[in-house]
Amino acid sequence: DGEVHMNELKNGNTEMFWNPTSEVRRQRLKRHIVLFEEQMDFESERLWQHVTSAINKGDQHKATQEKFVLEEEQRNAARERRESGTEWKPLLFRHDAGTNEWRYKYEDLRPWDPLNDIAQFEKDGILQTMERHLSTRMSNHKATCINNQITRHKRSAKDCRRRKTSDQPSNHSQNTESSCSTPESVQDLSDDDGKYLGFESLCAQCGKEMNHLKEIHSAVLSLQKAQQDIHR
């Protein structure tokens, strides 16, 4: 947060290396952290609190000592697990055998999409992105419901045609023929979930989630307007 200078020992000259101007400060991302009292023992801020305190006080010797204590505790814990045959299973990281590195399980390396992405946040250690469009899970579930209804509709029409050609026509069969119809093309299915094809309404889960997503959509529109105001 302050100016950083480089001192040339040979000639005693000092050169400005970094100057956080007021404009730079305004562009900084807001830092969000978990409250200290809510953090668990192995979360970084709590785990390294004594090292951080020593650094802030300018006590490099104390900071080195505290860092050594932490690292020794970690080495001893690893040794005890190895001797007891206990397997270490990280909650949020996986080991990459190819690079011999630990990688975050939920890393999101795709470019940020300002037209669709609203916010990125962490919940229980899992990185998540809030998007404007309906979730893929909901879309897939909705598509599955519609496809099932299309299949039933086609099967019903097929049964009608089979009855139509199996026996000699009678009054009953003629009535059956008049009550059966060939399904229309389903390629142009609208957002009304196929109601124009005579499908029944979506399943209870779809209906519940659709109502919930409508509420989210209204909130998203409000956020989108606020974002546009900010951009202006």
From TrEMBL:
Residue ranges, compositional bias (Basic residues): 151-164
Polar residues: compositionally biased ranges: 167-187
UniProt-recorded Gene Ontology molecular function terms: lipid binding
Coiled-coil stretches: none
Signal peptide positions on this chain: none
Residue segments, region Disordered: 144-187
Stored Pfam families: Oxysterol_BP (PF01237)
Stated name of the protein: OSBL5 protein
Organism annotation: Helopsaltes ochotensis
Lineage: Eukaryota, Metazoa, Chordata, Craniata, Vertebrata
